[in-house]
Amino acid sequence: MDHYTPESFTLTQSIGFAINKARNMLVAELDAALKDLGITTQQMGILMSMRYGESRTPFELSKLLSIDTGLMTRMLDKLEVKGLLDRSRSTEDRRVVNLTLTKEGKKIAEELPHIVPHVLNKRLKGFSKSEFTELRRLLNKFVDA
C-alpha cells in the first residue's frame, strides 16, 4: 500500500519532514545541554557507544550510528585531539583500528546519562507511557523497514 501519491504528497505533511524536523530540534536541544562538556550530540553517540561496549572500531561506530566513514574519521580526530579517546592498531590485523576511551573520555561518558534524559523527557512530557512505547515501536519499525 502506498501512503503517498504525487497528487497527495506535500512537503510539510510528509513523514520525512516531521522526522527531520524532530531530529533537528532534538539535536539543537542536546547540543545546548552538552555545551559545558565540550562535545556535540554526534560525539555523544560515539562516547556512549564506546562506554557501553557497543562499538570498538571506527567501522562498527559508522554502522551503528549510520555515519559515513569519512565523517566518522573526522569526528574521531576531534575526539582524539580533545583527549577523549585513543586509537591503536590491532595486533592481529593491522588494518583494524581499535578505539578506547581515555580517562577524560570515560568521565564525560559517565556524565551523559545524567544530562541526556532531561532533554528527552522534556520532549516526551506530553506522552503517556503507552504513547511513548508505541512511538518507540513505530520508529524502530520505520528504521527497520
UniProtKB/TrEMBL annotation:
Ranges of residues in domain HTH marR-type: 8-144
> What InterPro entries does the record point to?
HTH_MarR-typ, WH-like_DNA-bd_sf, WH_DNA-bd_sf
| Family matches, as Pfam families | MarR
Q: Does the keyword DNA-binding apply?
A: yes
The alphabetized UniProt keywords are: DNA-binding, Transcription, Transcription regulation
One MF term from GO for this chain?
DNA binding
Record protein name field: Transcriptional regulator MarR family
